[in-house]
């Protein structure tokens, strides 16, 4: 009986412990790095070197949009590719989703949870930007959501540490609900 491994679900050669299709994992690693270069390219635009206090929420939102859709999306696609001997079938990329296990399944599941949570964050951030763009408490709560989801929840999901993942999800969800509730109470 084999022991549980971080790379469970990644297609391997029957004669070695190496991945049959490392391109999937390479996509997971290189995709976000490439996408992360976009802000650097945008930074050469004159006047984009600092963020004013009333633009912190849009800046935080830009980071969270990148993380939710670009970085974890690339990792999810990489997991799909690594789970198949033939690599990712770009003509039918979702056909093998029901066969995912281990790391590829965790990559996809973590990505989809971030996408499921994003509308609540987006609504809270938009309302905060319109109603109280410089309220530090609201900014902190939105930042807490982004930090918990990006740097605690996502890694805990990939490493299969359920209690940490659940607590991070609970804290992130509570922070967004608090933003909406404070705005409903009229916080400026």
What's a concise summary of this model?
This protein has helices at residues 22-42, 56-82, 102-131, 136-158, 162-184. By secondary structure, the chain is an all-alpha fold.
Protein architecture, described:
With 188 residues, this protein is mainly alpha-helical. It is 66% helix and 0% strand. The protein has 5 helices and no strands. It has helices at 22-42, 56-82, 102-131, 136-158, 162-184. Helix 1 runs antiparallel to helix 2 (56-82) and helix 2 packs antiparallel against helix 3. The termini are far apart. The model is unreliable at 14-20 (pLDDT under 50).
What descriptors fit this protein?
188 residues; mainly alpha; 5 helices; 0% strand
Task: Give the helix/strand layout.
Layout: H1 22-42, H2 56-82, H3 102-131, H4 136-158, H5 162-184
Output the helix-strand order.
HHHHH
The Rg value, from CA coordinates, equals 19 Å
Strand content: under 5%
Secondary structure tally, helices? 5
Q: Number of DSSP strands?
A: 0
In helices, the fraction of residues equals: 55-70%
What is the terminal-to-terminal distance?
60 Å
């Amino acid at each position: 009986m084999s022991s549980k491994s971080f790379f469970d679900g990644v297609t391997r050669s029957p004669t070695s412990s190496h991945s049959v299709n490392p391109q999937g994992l390479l996509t997971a690693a290189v995709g976000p790095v490439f996408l992360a270069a976009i802000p650097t390219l945008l930074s050469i635009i004159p006047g984009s070197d600092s963020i004013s206090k009333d633009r912190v929420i849009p800046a935080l939102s830009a980071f969270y949009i990148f993380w939710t859709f670009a970085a974890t999306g690339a990792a999810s696609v990489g997991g799909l590719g690594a789970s198949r001997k033939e690599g990712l079938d770009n003509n039918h990329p979702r056909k093998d989703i029901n066969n995912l296990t281990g790391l590829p399944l965790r990559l996809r599941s973590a990505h989809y949870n971030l996408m499921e949570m994003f509308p609540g964050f987006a609504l809270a951030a938009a309302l905060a930007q319109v109603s109280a763009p410089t309220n530090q408490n609201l900014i902190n709560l939105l930042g807490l959501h982004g930090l918990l989801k990006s740097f605690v929840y996502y890694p805990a999901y990939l490493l299969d540490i359920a209690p940490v993942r659940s607590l991070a999800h609970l804290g992130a969800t509570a922070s967004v609900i608090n933003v909406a509730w404070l705005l409903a109470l009229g916080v400026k």
